[in-house]
Amino acid sequence: MRSIPTITKNLLIINVLVFIATYVFGRTGADLDNIFGLHFFLASDFHLYQLFTYMFMHANVEHIFFNMFALWMFGCVVENVWGPKKFIFYYISCGIGAGVIQEIAQFGSFYMLATSQIANVGFSDLPIIAANSQEILNQWTTVGASGAIYAILLAFGMIFPEERIFIFPLPVPIKAKWFVCIYVAIELFSALATTNDSVAHFAHLGGMLFGFLMIRYWRKHPHDNEYRQGIDRYFFDKLRNNWEKHSHKKANHFDHESSSSTNPHHKDWDYNAQKKADQEEIDRILDKIRRSGYDSLTTEEKRRLFENDGK
């Protein structure tokens, strides 16, 4: 677990804890899947927060095992490439996007079901029909992280398209890009060809669709990420510039004093060594902020960073 990056590790832990809680509360009669699972938006049990919470609910052990295995297998790699902030934004956004696509697919199913049983049904009639069908519609519940997981799978394929991976039961490794294409084809075929198989195929496709659009946007607008981090960069650059200016002033002051020194070469060497060590320490602290955020600094590191700021 120590080698698993922060966000992936926390997602694994949260999903497992929620699954255990669902089982424990289920023994007392409380149905967490009904509360936090994603209901059809025309059902009375639907709540907007479910577009987020449904990602942490799972139907059974097999469901959570395969989702968490895929998250561990591909999420570790993607998070290490992107970093924690970008990874969690991508994961949550694609999970919500998958839920939205699932809602659209369920609306299509509801419309076709209504038109097949009632003649001359229009869209304006659907709310009335839904109000009279709450017992059935409340059973249309989606749970699982699969939409976000499929988006992570897509991200891996787009980041490392030529990477070869083994997929059971294929006897030879295949490139990641073909692996993703195969999964898309399977999910699309399953979504169109099967019914009532209790698998949210459109949610899987929705997660991959949102992931694809997001990655394409990032690649076409690489400077947007810099813009979002502009305040942080300005802050870090200001700290660095202040440090360098202060170091320059100290160097000039030292040079002035050393002109009357009996051993200027020795003092020059000591000063330059100390200056180099101080600069390396500040660079290390700034790099740590960029990687893990300001809150990751120790009290001593914060003191070192600000003690000379603005002097």
Keywords:
elongated, mainly alpha, two-stranded antiparallel sheet, two-stranded antiparallel ribbon, 311 residues, 4 strands, 3% strand
Overall description:
With 311 residues, this protein is an all-alpha fold. The chain is 71% helix and 3% strand. It contains 14 helices and 4 strands. It has a two-stranded antiparallel sheet. Strand 3 and strand 4 (174-175) form a beta hairpin. Helix 5 crosses helix 8 (146-159). The longest helix is centred in the N-terminal third of the chain and has 34 residues, at 84-117. It is elongated, with a radius of gyration of 28 Å. The mean pLDDT is 81.
Shape: elongated
> Care to count the β-strands?
4
Strand content: under 5%
User: How can the largest sheet be summarized?
Assistant: 2 strands, antiparallel
Whole-number radius of gyration?
28 Å
Question: Summary?
Answer:
The protein has 14 helices and four strands. With 311 residues, the chain is mainly α.
Write the layout of secondary structure elements.
Blueprint: H1 6-27, H2 32-36, E1 38-39, H3 50-53, H4 61-82, H5 84-117, H6 126-131, H7 134-137, E2 141-142, H8 146-159, E3 164-165, E4 174-175, H9 176-193, H10 201-220, H11 222-228, H12 230-258, H13 264-292, H14 299-306
Antiparallel strand pairs: 1-2, 3-4
Helix pairs in contact: 1-4, 4-5, 4-8, 5-8, 5-10, 8-9, 8-10, 9-10, 10-11, 12-13
